UniProtKB/TrEMBL annotation:
<feature type="domain" description="Metallo-beta-lactamase">
    <location>
        <begin position="29"/>
        <end position="218"/>
    </location>
</feature>
<dbReference type="InterPro" id="IPR045761">
    <property type="entry name" value="ODP_dom"/>
</dbReference>
<dbReference type="InterPro" id="IPR036866">
    <property type="entry name" value="RibonucZ/Hydroxyglut_hydro"/>
</dbReference>
<dbReference type="InterPro" id="IPR001279">
    <property type="entry name" value="Metallo-B-lactamas"/>
</dbReference>
<dbReference type="Pfam" id="PF19583">
    <property type="entry name" value="ODP"/>
</dbReference>
<protein>
    <submittedName>
        <fullName>FprA family A-type flavoprotein</fullName>
    </submittedName>
</protein>
Length: 247
């Protein structure tokens, strides 16, 4: 599994985990992100149960395990949070932030110790020491209760399934050729995103944010001007069709 420091500020840093060459072939590749401050850390979309061992091994190389105090699940899918039962035994004092509507479903993955912190529909903010992180509503993209994580100081948006592309573990971490990359995103977004109304609501909200890195849960990270390119591309894309269109 690759581990890459995305950005470091005077108060915190963002770390990427992914591209695990040892994952089973029929398991889709996922990206995990962690924000680390002096004494706390938040792990976003910790991954499926099959990723628990490599994730744990990489995290303890970076921080003491007791520093991992917060977890975040953008929604309820197994590739996001089915490792919860193992984290529950490993981090009994941690908090998991996710949508209020998914608590009864997420607990099926195993949750006896970690506390569930329900995010309201309108989103919310939390502080990791002096670092403010915002849970931005992204409902119906693709889950009916869905959130992204925005860091105003680092100018990073962890965008969940928005911006996703399904590629193998050999793929680079960052988008290189934007136009070529759209061909890897098109079917995913048209099939998994059910609502143009929800899409356009999210785009209008996100255009108001200062974003240098747009970090999806699958595929590659967008940087700089690519963020605006992605928003323009996504805005013109007709989603919810269930059809793999070539145009």
């Amino acid at each position: 599994m690759k581990c890459h420091q995305l950005i470091e500020t005077p108060t915190h840093k963002w770390v990427f985990f992914g591209r695990d060459p040892e994952k089973p072939n029929k398991i889709i590749d996922t990206n995990q992100y962690m924000v680390i401050t002096s004494n706390k850390a938040l792990l976003m979309d910790p991954g499926g149960i099959e990723l628990f061992a490599p994730m744990l091994a990489n995290i303890v190389k970076m921080i003491p395990l007791e520093q991992l105090t917060h977890l975040f699940a953008s929604h309820q899918d197994p590739d996001i949070i089915s490792s919860l039962g193992l984290w529950d035994q490993t981090l009994p004092d941690a908090k998991l932030y996710s949508a209020w509507m998914w608590e009864g479903f997420i607990r099926h993955f195993g949750m006896d110790n970690i506390s569930y912190e329900a995010i309201p529909d309108e989103g919310m903010s939390i502080n990791l020491e002096q670092v403010e992180l915002k849970f931005i509503p992204a409902h119906y993209l693709h889950s009916s209760g869905n959130y992204h994580v925005y860091d105003p100081a680092a100018k990073v948006l962890m965008s969940g399934d928005v911006g996703a592309a399904l590629e193998g573990p050999e793929a680079d971490i960052f988008v290189e050729d934007f136009d070529a990359h759209t061909q890897k995103m098109r079917f995913f977004h048209q099939r998994w995103m059910p609502s143009n109304t929800a899409k356009n609501d999210w785009i209008a909200r996100v255009r108001q944010l200062d974003i240098e890195y747009l970090c999806p849960q699958h595929g590659r990270i967008f940087q700089g001007k690519q963020v605006a390119q992605f928003l323009d591309w996504f805005e013109q894309l007709d989603v919810g069709t269930g059809i793999n269109r070539s145009a």
